[in-house]
Automatic annotation (TrEMBL), chain A:
It comes from the Eukaryota. This is LAFE_0C07778g1_1. InterPro entries: TPR-like_helical_dom_sf (IPR011990).
Automatic annotation (TrEMBL), chain B:
GO terms for biological process: post-translational protein targeting to endoplasmic reticulum membrane; SRP-dependent cotranslational protein targeting to membrane. Residues 608-654 are annotated as: Disordered. Residues 116-187 form the J domain. It comes from the Eukaryota. The chain crosses the membrane at residues 16-38, 84-102, 213-234. InterPro entries: C2_domain_sf, DnaJ_domain, Ig_E-set, J_dom_sf. GO terms for cellular component: Sec62/Sec63 complex. GO terms for molecular function: protein transmembrane transporter activity; RNA binding. Keywords: Membrane, Transmembrane, Transmembrane helix. This is LAFE_0G08130g1_1.
TrEMBL record, chain C:
It comes from Lachancea fermentati (Zygosaccharomyces fermentati). PANTHER family: TRANSLOCATION PROTEIN SEC66. Coiled coil: none annotated. It comes from the Eukaryota. The keyword Protein transport does not apply. One of its GO terms (biological process) is post-translational protein targeting to membrane, translocation. The lineage of its organism: Eukaryota, Fungi, Dikarya, Ascomycota, Saccharomycotina. It holds the Pfam family Sec66. One of its GO terms (cellular component) is Sec62/Sec63 complex. The chain crosses the membrane at residues 27-45. This is LAFE_0G15192g1_1.
Length: 191, 654, 205
């Protein structure tokens, strides 16, 4: 292993590293960067207010543009806000805060993607929400919708049924189930 | 007096010893061999259903494959196996020994010195006491020393005297209490005879030249041969898991599953990569590396030839069957649904030698011109059901098949692939009408096996009577016995798979709350395929209601045992049941079903009874009823929250 | 008992023989035998114990890699032995990364425990895997303790805060990994489902 250390940037590098090794190196580099910017040796998980302010500003910009029906620009603003959060936040700032922040912004991004027909992007964001523990019905509604639009009717059925099992009285899910069943019947040549 | 040990100088005892030893081994072995010989053609093959695909499979199997099957199948003829030879040789030795015993004078002498009172008195063994007495009187008259004639020699006189004594003894042995006891206990009226202890070894082994040989053979047996066989057996048992895969393969799969990152997407390629590291492959071919195995498996999926590694490829493909089941077992134990699903997809891919993708249902059919199909398609046809909405000629065009005969074959295969349609699904507790808290339910699925060619009909067209279960005592005791009455499914149409096989359905149960698998899969291969030959063609049937007669259709049953008891709280719990076929694309079933846990009904009737008691107790009874109602209401209001905490706690514990 | 030296009754005569042979055996024979036996058993036992310990240490880890730990030691070595001017904060970063990884591993082992126990009890997995798992639990525990010690050495009194901070880092790193995997997932699904997208991410029919 021939680890390369750059004295000026204080970053480490390893040519031809495996995926896991590259991941660890990137993580160390990010920590180094943030540690250098942090003057307090006894730093705590308390989230930094200046980062919060910056991210919030970008996000609210996006919300404003959404209200004005400027969807592509809104999407750009919100994506920017998310990127800013990923870049500015240090790994040691409270996880609960960072998670909530990300989930909230991603929820908005999903709706914007769906409106603009970017179904695969929306689907990935939805799966991110699900993997991080968001199991509310509106997530299932959006996922079923995205999957139907992507013509994955069997997967859509699975998601819809799961959504209904967690919220049996949801009207929208029931409607989606009916629509999906019809599309599935056509897919299977049963009409 | 010290007992002396005699060696078997006159070959009296060792033949018996050897004979006993041989018989103990030979008799059960012979019975087992005969039984196996006669039984080899029966049982499963008798109950397996015939299918039009059997003949097609024969035809489409390539010559190379048939050669391979001949080379590697278990062709040990029962008649020439080692066991049979051993049995035959053993019996030959037995015959020799019997002969030897028969010809051995010393044994005969020893046998003849047995005391037989009946013989001495000259009467049958079933003689009465009267007959015994009369026989004795007659003979004693003849042999009494005082009654003997004078002109006998000294020797003859002595012989007569001996005879007389014997006769007296014989009489006494049959009548006198004490003597009879002696006779019964020791075989001789005079009491215990001389007993000699001997070692049943022939003379030549005990001689000074032979004895070191005996000692060495004992040492070899106890010190080397026995430990060798025991340790070999032990290490063999230790190296395979209960599922039949090598322990190292199982460890490898467990490693992959443990280190699996949730952000990764599972693909068939990934599973194939894992399979290529199996220890079984390494044992078969120690010189080849996993990447070679991986490329061979990919070759198999793409139906491309592997030149000189063709036999290797076929052998490892045949082995994937047990490896995939082992992986399935480990994946479900790790509760990973994505890997479980993709493993089953990989299974199908390997059996049909078709890569997994949106068009696999069509591409698994024989004679399909892949290029023509993928490029020429006007409608996006991905399922067999959709394919059958077109008439036969059009199908030929879509699939790029020009030849009439080939088209017919393809259509036969396509219409014989079993599709499952759910008719009824419920959780059942034997003996109870509802699922009660903390009971042991199992899942009962009523399915309709239908062809892609058949017109769709809704499950409510099947009346309840056709879906009912027998309620007799036997079915309560063992609810799963009734599923075994269904016939074994026919052989799979898989001309590219090296071994003839019957597929199966794997039933996986998932908890909808957390989306994870809750138990290891239940494998079943018993369903009737009678429906597949019915002609309910969707292109011909115009009106389902009038033309559909449910009585002509067979309803199949799948019963899945449930590994956990029902939750102790009342409420509705949702489970997803996935029934995936291992051999065909499109033959799967995926449903969500609720488990409604309710109070047992007789509690409700008790409440009614209480309500009927006279008005004096009305206050009390009202109070009781009210409080019961309140509890019920409480439960139903807070059921969701209760269930959440229950399952959450389980999650936290895990 | 018999009065003529015989123990049994006979009808017609009989012969008795009694020849007792005496064999002379040296006094030392049993001692030699016992000592040979005991010595061979002792040597076998010690040999076997050594072999099992060697096997245990050579067992591969349950985890695929130990990169976080390796990187920390490499950087430390670079700083102390190879005289590369590695900044202190880089070492600190590597230590934090190592701590976060140790926490991730112990959580992962804990959450897999019922599943691996089930596998072992069902016989789906061999003795070797179970041994490796039990080994790993101990090793991960040890690793975390070592990391704490290093933290304490680096900055006295930091240990408690170090643990809290490492926990946050562990979870945040996991979230970031999951977020960054989105692009790769998009590509895989697009290929699997035979979809085509234009530059804007809109579906092309």
């Amino acid at each position: 292993m021939s680890l390369v250390y750059d004295v000026n940037t204080k970053q480490i590098q390893l040519p031809e590293a495996s995926d896991d090794m590259a991941m660890n190196i990137a993580q160390i580099n990010k920590l180094t960067q943030d540690l250098i910017a942090e003057s307090n040796p006894n730093f705590t998980p308390k989230p930094r207010d200046d980062s919060t302010a910056m991210i919030k500003k970008l996000f609210e910009n996006g919300l404003k543009q959404t209200k004005q029906q400027h969807f592509p620009e809104a999407l750009k603003s919100i994506s920017l806000a998310i990127e800013m959060a990923q870049r500015k936040r240090t790994p040691w700032e409270a996880f609960a805060i960072q998670l909530q922040e990300l989930q909230f912004m991603v929820k908005n991004r999903i709706d914007l993607c769906l409106i603009q027909g970017k179904f695969m992007d929306a689907l990935q964001d939805i799966e991110l929400l699900q993997n991080t523990g968001v199991n509310t019905s509106d997530v299932f509604i959006r996922k079923t919708d995205a999957l139907i639009k992507l013509k994955q009717y069997e997967l859509a059925k699975v998601e819809c049924e799961r959504g209904l099992s967690l919220d049996p009285t949801n009207v929208k899910l029931k409607a989606l189930l009916l629509e999906n069943t019809r599309k599935l019947a056509e897919y299977n040549g049963d009409i | 007096m010290p007992l002396s040990y005699d060696y078997d100088e006159s070959s009296e005892t060792w033949p018996f010893f050897l004979l006993t030893l041989l018989c103990v081994v030979l008799i059960p072995l012979t019975i087992a061999q005969l039984y196996a010989l006669l039984k080899s053609e029966n049982s499963e093959k008798a109950t397996r259903q015939k299918s039009p695909l059997d003949e097609l499979d024969e035809r489409y199997t390539s010559a190379k494959m048939i050669d391979f099957q001949k080379k590697f199948s278990n062709k040990r003829s029962k008649l020439t196996s080692k066991r049979t030879i051993f049995v035959v040789v053993g019996w030959a030795i037995v015959a020799l020994l019997v002969n030897k015993i028969g010809g051995n004078e010393a044994i005969k002498e020893a046998a003849s010195s047995l005391f037989d009172p009946y013989e001495l008195l000259g009467i049958a063994t079933s003689a009465t006491e009267k007959e015994v007495k009369s026989a004795y009187r007659k003979l004693s008259v003849k042999f009494h020393p005082d009654k003997l004639s004078k002109d006998l020699t000294e020797q003859q006189r002595l012989d007569m005297e001996e005879q007389y004594v014997l006769i007296t003894k014989a009489y006494k042995a049959l009548t006198d209490e004490l003597t009879r006891e002696n006779f019964l206990r020791y075989g001789h009226p005079d009491g215990p005879q001389a007993t000699s202890h001997g070692i049943a070894l022939p003379k030549f082994l005990v001689n000074s030249s032979g004895s070191p040989l005996v000692i060495i053979s004992y040492i070899a047996m106890l010190g080397f041969i026995l430990p060798f066989f025991v340790s070999r057996w032990w290490s063999r048992t230790q190296s395979f898991t209960k599922k039949g895969i090598h322990v190292k393969s199982a460890s490898y799969f467990a490693d992959r599953l443990f280190n699996f990152k949730p952000s990764q997407v599972v693909t068939v390629d990934m599973i194939i990569k894992w399979l290529s590291h199996a220890e079984e492959f390494k044992i078969f071919y120690p010189n080849l590396t996993p990447s070679v195995f991986e490329s061979l498996l990919h070759d198999h999926l793409n139906r491309s030839s592997s030149s000189d590694l063709e036999d290797v490829k076929l052998r490892i493909v045949a082995k994937t069957h047990s490896l995939l089941f082992g992986l399935l077992d480990i994946a479900t134990s790790f509760r990973n649904l994505e890997i479980t699903n993709v493993t089953l997809d990989t299974f199908k891919s390997i059996v049909q030698a078709t890569p997994s993708g949106p068009y696999s249902q069509i591409l698994q059919l024989p004679n399909v011109n892949q290029k023509a199909f993928l490029e020429g398609a006007v409608d996006d046809i991905r399922t067999l059901g959709k394919l059958f909405t077109f008439d036969d000629k059009k199908i030929g065009k879509i699939l790029g098949i020009d030849d009439e005969g080939k088209l017919k074959d393809t259509l036969t295969v396509a219409s014989q692939i079993p599709h499952l349609k759910i008719v009824r699904a419920e959780f059942k507790v034997p003996g109870e009408p509802v699922v009660t808290p903390s009971s042991t339910p199992h899942i009962v699925l009523k399915v309709m096996v239908r062809s892609a060619r058949h017109k769709f009909f809704t499950p409510n067209k099947i009346p309840d009577e056709m879906c009912s279960e027998p309620q007799d005592f036997d079915s309560l005791r063992d609810p799963f016995a009734s599923t075994l009455e269904q016939p074994v499914i026919p052989e799979t149409f898989a001309p590219y798979f090296p071994v003839k096989r019957t597929g199966s359905w794997c039933c996986i149960v998932v908890l909808q709350k957390d989306g994870k698998v809750i138990q290891t899969p239940m494998i079943t291969n018993r369903l009737s395929f009678v429906n597949l030959s019915k002609d309910f063609d969707k292109r011909k049937v115009k009106d389902v209601d009038s033309e559909f007669d449910p009585k002509e259709w067979e309803v199949g049953t799948i019963k899945i045992p449930f590994s956990q008891p029902a939750p102790p709280q009342k409420g509705d719990y949702f489970f997803r049941v996935i029934v995936k076929n291992t051999d065909y694309f499109g033959a799967d079933l995926d449903i969500t079903m609720p488990m409604s846990v309710r109070d047992p009904p007789h509690i409700e009737t008790l409440e009614n009874e209480y309500g009927d008691i006279n008005s004096e107790d009305e206050e009390d009874t009202e109070f009781e009823e009210d409080s019961n109602d309140e509890l019920d209401d409480d439960d139903s209001d807070y059921t969701d929250i209760d269930t959440d905490t229950d399952v959450d706690e389980e999650d936290e514990k895990q | 008992m018999s009065f003529n030296g015989t123990n049994f009754n006979e009808t017609f005569g009989g012969e008795t023989e009694s020849t007792v042979e005496m064999k002379s055996v040296s006094f030392y024979t049993p001692l030699i035998y016992v000592s040979v036996l005991v010595i061979s058993l002792i040597t076998f036992a010690s040999h076997y114990r050594k072999k099992t310990i060697k096997e245990l240490t050579e067992l591969p880890s349950i985890f695929d890699e130990s990169d976080a730990r390796d990187l920390y030691f490499q950087l430390k070595q670079m700083k102390e032995l190879d005289n590369v001017k590695v900044h202190d904060k880089v070492i600190k970063a590597a230590l934090l990364n190592r701590g976060a990884e140790a926490i991730r591993r112990s959580l992962k082992l804990k959450e897999s425990e019922p599943q691996i126990t089930l596998l072992y009890k069902n016989g789906s997995v061999g003795e070797d895997y179970w041994k490796r798992y039990q080994n790993e639990v101990k090793l991960v525990d040890l690793e975390f303790k070592e990391t704490l010690q290093e933290a304490e050495m680096m900055q006295p009194g930091w240990a408690q805060l170090f643990v809290a901070v490492c926990k946050e880092i562990c979870f945040n790193q996991a979230l970031k990994r999951r977020y960054q995997a989105e692009l790769a997932r998009k590509e895989i699904f697009t290929e699997q489902w035979h979809l085509k997208f234009d530059d804007n991410g809109k579906l092309i029919e």
